[in-house]
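Researcher: I'd like a candidate sequence for this fold, 410 residues long. If you have to choose between options at a position, lean toward the conservative one.
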């Protein structure tokens, strides 16, 4: 390998591609895959395979997190032959949960500067793509604003719940940079404020929920740490007041609230409710929970969940036609019905174990907070964009926080 190009530099390049690819899903879909495959190839370009596996198993956060993929593999034994295609697609989608932490174990440990550099790639990519979406909104203002009345949002490069959640997390990354004195405080502050404004214009429920819920949580945590509870309560009231003002003054948020209230009116009438997104979402929760109640211990099998959902709709909500028979828009209910209590507990342990290991890391806590919130209203781990964001950012933290006493690599 040329002297001017080290494995570490190549790995950082491919990790950057992976992060940028999180925001380019619709117009450069292959970029995250290029980043992951590049990282894997760079990791394998070593003579120290023994040391790589040692580091992987020495770091509990890495190998326990990767067990998420094993849970999916084991669920394959429950899958009926007729559902193998659906199962294989979902299982292959989870392969990065094993490969990415393993690849990072074969690479030199990240320095703090390099970790912050990759976070900056994430932050500024969020800023640039949000700015591009806002420019497009300005160019087609009346057309896009009218679409909000039909429960649509402005065009985005990624599925809008996932994009808004990533942007909300980027706001806290920007605030972290300001607190730590990373980069220009003025420029980062302006960019962070822009992202806050953009989230309100975008008016996606989960993005605003992440912004305000995590904001209140972070504020109260900081108030407790500084022993200034009154300051924290005042800040929380201010945040809620800002949300109230926004709901009355920002046109896109007003339309979103009106549409949500309208949707809920039809929940008790499935024949009509199936045509309204919020009511349909609630039906998916009901059906998913019914499947879990019928198979509480081991679940119906993650590969069988689509067919089981179709049968449950026919049995319990026959008014909902086939095109509207959605799987549960809730990650927790999806896995409860697919894995049962046993597999669901195994999922929680594997997925959240890095948070337990590094629970004092405020940004990691906020990342898991954002993911946990979106799990309540979406099933992002069943999509490519949601999987990429989840595995890339969590693995980035694992890679950086890897114990210093792990055997060295070069």
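Model: Candidate sequence:
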């Amino acid at each position: 390998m040329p002297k001017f190009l080290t494995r570490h530099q190549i790995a950082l390049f491919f990790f950057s591609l992976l992060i940028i690819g999180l925001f380019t899903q619709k117009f450069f879909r292959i970029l995250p895959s290029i980043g992951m495959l590049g990282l894997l190839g760079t990791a394998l370009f070593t003579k120290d395979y023994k040391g790589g596996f040692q580091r992987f198993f020495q770091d509990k956060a890495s190998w326990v997190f990767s067990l998420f993929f094993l849970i999916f593999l084991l669920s394959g034994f429950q899958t009926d032959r007729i559902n193998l295609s659906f199962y294989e697609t979902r299982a292959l989608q989870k392969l990065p949960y094993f490969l990415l932490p393993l690849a990072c174990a074969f690479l030199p440990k990240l320095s703090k500067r390099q970790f912050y550099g990759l976070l900056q790639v994430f932050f500024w990519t969020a800023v640039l793509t949000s700015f591009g979406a806002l420019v497009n909104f300005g160019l087609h203002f009346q057309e896009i604003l009218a679409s909000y009345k039909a429960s649509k949002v402005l065009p985005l490069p990624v599925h809008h719940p996932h994009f808004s959640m990533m942007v909300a997390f980027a706001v806290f990354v920007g605030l972290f940079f300001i607190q730590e004195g990373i980069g220009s405080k003025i420029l980062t502050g302006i960019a962070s404020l822009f992202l806050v404004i953009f989230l309100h214009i975008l008016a996606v429920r989960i993005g605003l929920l992440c912004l305000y819920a995590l904001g209140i949580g972070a504020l109260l945590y900081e108030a407790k740490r500084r022993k200034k509870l009154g300051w924290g309560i005042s800040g929380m009231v201010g945040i809620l007041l800002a949300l109230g003002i926004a709901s009355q003054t920002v046109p896109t948020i007003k339309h979103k609230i009106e549409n949500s209230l309208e949707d809920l009116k039809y929940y008790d009438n499935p024949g009509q409710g199936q045509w309204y997104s919020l009511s349909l979402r609630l039906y998916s929760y009901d059906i998913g929970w019914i499947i879990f109640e019928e198979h509480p211990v081991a679940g119906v099998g993650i590969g069988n969940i689509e067919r089981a959902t179709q049968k449950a709709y026919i049995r319990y909500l026959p008014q909902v036609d086939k095109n509207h028979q959605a799987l549960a828009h809730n990650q927790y209910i999806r896995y409860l019905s697919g894995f049962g209590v046993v597999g669901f507990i195994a999922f929680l342990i594997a997925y959240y174990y890095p948070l337990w290991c590094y629970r004092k890391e405020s940004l990691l806590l906020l990342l898991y907070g954002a993911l946990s919130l979106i799990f309540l209203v979406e099933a992002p781990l069943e999509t490519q964009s949601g999987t990429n964001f989840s595995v890339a950012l969590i693995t980035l933290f694992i890679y950086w926080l890897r114990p210093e006493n792990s055997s060295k690599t070069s």
